[in-house]
Amino acid sequence: MAGRRGALIVLEGMDRAGKSTQGRRLVEALRAAGHRADLLCFPERTTEIGRLISSYLEKEKNLEDHAVHLLFSANRWEHVPLMKDKLHQGITLVVDRYAFSGVAFTSAKQNFCLDWCKQPDVGLPKPDLILFLELSPEEAAVRGNFGNERYENSSFQKKVLQSFYHLMKDKTLNWKTMDASKSIEDLHIEIKSVAEKTMKDIQNKPLGELWK
Ligand SMILES: Nc1ncnc2c1ncn2[C@@H]1O[C@H](COP(=O)(O)OP(=O)(O)OP(=O)(O)O)[C@@H](O)[C@H]1O
Ligand SMILES: [Mg+2]
């Protein structure tokens, strides 16, 4: 089956929409169905850059906003060789947050334009599918309080959501909005079905480059 590649499937959405829950479930289900699949979460906190980001998010460290944005992007870039290797070996990658979160969070800050925010991520592996888990702030609140990490407050989150909606207007990308207020199981069944269709559709197509 030479040449058949895995799909790059990204989960995006607001905090507590269920990205991590669905990412784990999807990888488990794909493996159970006989596919090869791996989960990757950004920020990936185990590298040197990842540890720096983690201490920033935990408010142990203060870093300049532009510098932080570039670190988040660098954290994705440092995983690109591994991602490409896996995709070309036929492994589907399920990615919990990607460049869209990076851009949405920084561009929600004062004095950042969306275009500047996108530049560092231009050329990353292009997702074959981006699942946007849509959940109202009210419904998200029922799932527990915000933690103590940076960005976990509701006025900032509303600005982040506006940035996501702006990014979703890009018709060169395969965005699918999913109703994240459904039960974990119902949402999982829908996500699995969309994911398997994408895996079939793209298996003989080349991997694209994001925002190019
Ligand atoms: N469909 C659902 N219905 C009800 N509760 C859910 C659903 N999906 C996830 N949850 C619960 O909501 C909480 C947040 O889920 P999860 O950690 O998967 O969200 P997330 O999008 O990864 O959040 P974050 O952005 O903070 O990482 C967890 O307690 C989880 O069990
Ligand atoms: Mg999560």
Automatic annotation (TrEMBL):
Q: State the superkingdom.
A: Eukaryota
Under catalytic activity, the entry for this protein gives: dTMP + ATP = dTDP + ADP
CDD domains recorded for this chain? TMPK
**Keyword set includes Nucleotide-binding:** yes
Q: Looking at the Swiss-Prot or TrEMBL record, what is one Pfam family this protein matches?
A: Thymidylate_kin
SUPFAM superfamilies annotated for this entry?
Answer: P-loop containing nucleoside triphosphate hydrolases (SSF52540)
Q: In which pathway does it act?
A: Pyrimidine metabolism; dTTP biosynthesis
| Molecular-function annotations in GO | ATP binding; dTMP kinase activity; nucleoside diphosphate kinase activity
EC number(s) on file: 2.7.4.9
Q: Which GO terms describe its biological process?
A: dTDP biosynthetic process; dTTP biosynthetic process; dUDP biosynthetic process
Q: Which GO terms describe its cellular component?
A: cytosol; mitochondrion; nucleus
Which InterPro entries does the UniProt entry name for this protein? P-loop_NTPase, Thymidylate_kin-like_dom, Thymidylate_kin_CS, Thymidylate_kinase
Tell me which UniProt keywords the record has, alphabetically. ATP-binding, Kinase, Nucleotide biosynthesis, Nucleotide-binding, Transferase
Thymidylate kinase-like domain segment(s): 11-191
The function of this protein is:
Catalyzes the phosphorylation of thymidine monophosphate (dTMP) to thymidine diphosphate (dTDP), the immediate precursor for the DNA building block dTTP, with ATP as the preferred phosphoryl donor in the presence of Mg(2+).
Which family is annotated?
Belongs to the thymidylate kinase family.
**Annotated protein name in UniProt:** Thymidylate kinase
- Tell me what organism the protein belongs to: Dromaius novaehollandiae
